[in-house]
Amino acid sequence: MGQERTTGTGTQVVHRVGQLLRAVAGREQGSTVAELAAETGLTRPTVHRLLTGLAEEGLVDRTAGTGAWQLGPELYVLGAVAAHRYPIRELAGPSLRRLAEATGESAFLSARRGLETVCLARVEGAFPIRSHVLYEGLRLPLGVASAGLAILAHLPDAEVERVLAATAGARAGWGPLHTPERIRDLLAEVRRDGFAVNPGLIVEGSWGMAAAVFDATGAPVYALSLTGIEPRFTGERRQPLGRALLTEAHRLSRELGHR
C-alpha cells in the first residue's frame, strides 16, 4: 500500500510538472506565479515550489527585471536533441519563408497534440501591420484559429463531434463565437475549399488562414497558416492566399511521406 501511494504521488508530481511547463511555454512574455496558478489550477505555493525545483535543474528561468518565469536553457538543450527525431521545423522552414515572402503576412507551423494545436515556428512577413495573436508555444483547442480548423476538418465526423464536446469549456475561454454550430459551418467551408479561414473569432479584425499537412499515414498532424489584419484576408486576395497555403502544405506532406 505504501509503495502504491508513493507511486501515485510521484505520478501526480510528473503530471503537475508537465502541466506547469506547458503553461510557462504558452506565454511568450513569461508568466508570474499568480498567472501560472490561475492557468493550471494549482495553488500558488505548489507552483512556486515546483518552479524553484525546475529552476535548479535549468528547466525554467526568471527574467531579469520583470521576474516573469520562462522556459530555461536546459529545455533548449533537450529540445535540440529531440529535434533530430522530429525534424518538422527544419522541413517546414522553406515553406514558411516562401509563404511569408510571397504574401507579406506572418507564416506559422502548428502541430496537433491531442485536443490542441501547438504553434512550433513562425516567419514574419514584410507587411508592417501584423496580428500578434499567434506565437511559438501557444496552445489552442482544436477548432480555435485557422490551424485547428484545418486539422479538425480532415478528421472523421464522429471524431469531430468528440473533439467539439471535449473542448467546449476550453473553446469558450477564447471567445463566445466558438460555438459548435459556427465551427461546423467553418469546417464545411474547409472541406469545400481545402483551406481554413478564421474570420476574427479570437480577436476582432485579426484573421487567419491555414492548410493541413499530412504524415505518411494520412493523418492531419500539422498545419501551415498565415495571419494578419482583416482587409488582407478578404475579397479577391483570399483565393491566392489559399492556393499558396495548399501548395506548401502539399509539398510538406510529400516530404513527410504522404502520397
UniProtKB/TrEMBL annotation:
Chain ranges of the HTH iclR-type domain: 11-73
Q: Which UniProt keywords apply?
A: DNA-binding, Transcription, Transcription regulation
Tell me which PROSITE patterns the record gives: HTH_ICLR (PS51077), ICLR_ED (PS51078)
- Per its UniProt record, what Pfam families does this chain match? HTH_IclR, IclR_C
Q: Where's the IclR-ED domain? A: 74-258
Q: Which InterPro entries match?
A: GAF-like_dom_sf, HTH_MetabolicPath_Reg, Tscrpt_reg_IclR_C, Tscrpt_reg_IclR_N, WH-like_DNA-bd_sf, WH_DNA-bd_sf
- Where, if anywhere, are coiled coils annotated? none
PANTHER family given in the database record: HELIX-TURN-HELIX TRANSCRIPTIONAL REGULATOR, ICLR FAMILY (PTHR30136), TRANSCRIPTIONAL REGULATORY PROTEIN (PTHR30136:SF39)
Record protein name field:
IclR family transcriptional regulator
Q: Which organism is it from?
A: Kocuria aegyptia
For this protein's source organism, the top of the classification is: Bacteria, Bacillati, Actinomycetota, Actinomycetes, Micrococcales
